[in-house]
Amino acid sequence: MSRAVRFAMAMIVSLGLLTWGALTIVQRTTRSWFEKDLRLRVDLVMSGARQALLSHWEKDDRRALERVLADIARDERIMAAAACGTDLSFLAGTDEFPEAFGCVRVGPHLRPAADSPADLWVPWSVKASLPGGPVHVSAVPIVGGSQPFGFVVLVHDLSFVARREALTRRSLLAAFAVLAMAASILTVIFSRLSWRDWSDEIRRFLQGDSERPEFRPILGDVRRLVDRVMLEHEADGSGAGWTPDRLKQTLNRYLHREKVVLVANREPYIHERGPDGRIDVVHPASGLVTALEPVMRACSGVWVAHGGGSADRESADRHGRVRVPPDENSYVLRRVWLSPEEERGYYYGFANEGLWPLCHLAHARPTFRTEDWRHYQEVNRKFADAVCEEVEGEDPIVLVQDYHFTLLPRLIRKRLPRATVLMFLHIPWPNSERFGVCPWRQELLEGMLGAGILGFHTQYHCNNFLDSVDRYLEARLDRAENAVVLRGRQTLVRAYPISVEWPVRWLRDLPPAQECRRQVFAELGLPPNALLGLGVDRLDYTKGVEERFLAVERLLDRFPEFRGRFTFVQLAAPSRTLIDRYRQLNERVESLAARINARFEDGPYRPIVLLRAHHEPPAVFRYYRAADVCYVSSLHDGMNLVAKEFGAARDDERGVLVLSEFTGAARELTEALIVNPYDLEQASEALAAALRMPPEAQRDRMRSMRAFLAEFNVYRWAGRMLVDAARLRRQERLAGRLHDGDPDPRAVLS
Ligand code: F6P
After folding, report:
1. CA 522 → CA 511, 519, 603, distances in Å?
2. What is the pTM of this model?
3. 272 with 310: CB under 8 angstroms?
């Protein structure tokens, strides 16, 4: 049904209701007018006839009385009249006076007036009906001096009222029907014309061609709304969930197949020469890689990263390029070579001993060394060179990832002023006091503000960043827009909670969950009735691995039913081992596991199995599918994709996630049992509740979590950022056009 027809129908229904209301009002009003009219008539008739009636009454001349009554009844509205005595006797009346209103019937209704000494009656009237139609009956007392003689009954014909009402109703209905038709036709015509005008105007505006100033304030809102609606419902034509194809289409549609250049320190494929001399391809343990690799496979383009593998150079061409994934060749990995000093200063030093502890609230003191800072600057410049070598044209799309490259957006902007630069931080952003301890805080902020869009996992981190800018830079903050304007250039600061691919490709070659469980139990030598807990992390002090083991110990202390039955497996990928703190963590975690195991070991039973090694994704996913509970106990984490991977792995809808409240994921995965990892009582209780949870409850939670993950997957994350980037490009182009002749395109956006 077309919009116009629906509109006309709605119009007719409303007018119908209006007509019905109007008819009721008109009917009530006219009826009360007629009744008033009737009473006036009675008064008139009776005052004209009163004298004659009195004189004949006094003489008891019944024939004369009859004549007067016949005169009265000559009025076409008075059907009959009768004279009755005070004793209710019938004195005289017109022919065929209806018996129903005879003296004895009407008389008892006459009441004496309250203050009348002579018991004079008060006139009385009533509406009634006769076979011929409605009538109005009135009884009028006849008084001579102060002496009551009796009363006259008049029967009025009311059928004319009904006839007039019917006529009025018909005329009104006809008038409203004509009005309704005319109004709906006119409305449809006008609405079509004005909708066309309005949509033309909006279209012109969205294309940037309109001159109408009154629309300007809402233009940004309308564009955003249109983009959001298009993005949500139209990108793949079906409105269905986000897939690699849909992301590809979004890129084509909004960014016209622009090549995407992504910069991240960690490469998605590391070529390592094994002890047997063979070259292996390793997938690093990295949330960033987990999220972005599927995106790059969908978008193509180039991933620029540090080539850190022992066989990386020999696997790449002379420019450091290699097509990946091996056997698929979807995109190019461009490796940047760093000297050991550069790697130590930039990666281990400034990034991971300075910025990492600065941004994570995990009780680690940041260390800032001038030498590290120098290397950090150099390496950022080196990556800027690599980006410039990889881009095509002067307005590429560059996605800068993480805290290793805070200076890069500004460097790229200087070299490629028309580039669209997006930066995403995979770690939390601290509050401004904490951030302020960094000696190069201003340089970092200015470097990041070279990006047009700056993304964090949560709005909370966006706010912290804006506060830091407010405190340490001379920049204009637009809180309503969540934007910073620095030297005339705007950076939008937005929350984009990252996610995992859906469905996960690693599941394709894995057996069903039951079989994975059987295999894992066999590997670990667990009996079939054992309960399995799982932790999966890089061995990093922010992950709360020690707190996790202590929670397991507390569980066994408090709930003896789990002793000998519950085993917690920790897959721990060694990480950043050149840093003292990480080496110490390794030792501490190992001795803690040994202490707890010594307390509860029983024959072959050990409560904690610490597997300190790199595990390839299929192995990790096998464990996810085997576990009864997965415990993510980060002390502070931007998002934590282990939590999301666990949910994505469980197509059997079993298993329970226990999740630290200090992860970004805890804001989204509310089906998990959320805990404070420092609170060992709470954490151990949650572990017990997870292990005791009935299968139906597990299924309900898992089903809901998986529905969320299916919808809010990493393709959607990337799609939202790219659409925002497209909008930014359009704005910049429009602003550039406005500033035609402006020799400095860096100053175009305000
Ligand atoms: O999550 C933060 C992060 O630095 C990511 O950038 C990376 O995926 C992960 O930690 C691993 O760190 P690294 O690359 O230092 O091993």
Report:
1. 15, 5, 17
2. 0.71
3. yes
Q: What residue owns the CA closest to ligand 1's atom 14?
A: 266
Q: Is-contact 200 212, C-beta < 8 A?
A: no
**Which atom of ligand 1 lies nearest, measured to the CA of 264?**
6
> At a CB cut-off of 8 Å and minimum separation 6, what does 342 contact?
375, 378, 379, 382
Using a 10 angstrom Cβ sphere, with 0-12 exposed, 13-18 middle and 19 or more buried, the burial of residue 318 is exposed
Cα of 144 to ligand 1 centre, how many Å?
115
Please list, residue by residue across 542-580, b when 16 or more beta carbons sit within 10 angstroms of its beta carbon and e when fewer do.
bbbbbbbbbbbbbbbeebeebebbbbbbbbbbebbeebe
Distance between Cα 349 and ligand 1 center (Å): 14
Two tokens at 173? Answer: 């209905």
**Ligand 1, CB cutoff 6 Å, lining residues:** 265-266, 286-289, 402, 426-427, 538, 575-576
- Classify strands 279-282 and 476-478 as parallel, antiparallel or unpaired: unpaired
pLDDT score of 678 more than 90: yes
Answer yes or no: is pLDDT of 690 > 80.
yes
What DSSP designation does 108 have?
G
Q: Cα dist. 299→140, 354, 557, 704 in Å?
A: 99, 33, 51, 29
Residue with tokens 């024959």: 603
Lowest mean pLDDT among 76-80, 467-471, 607-611: 76-80
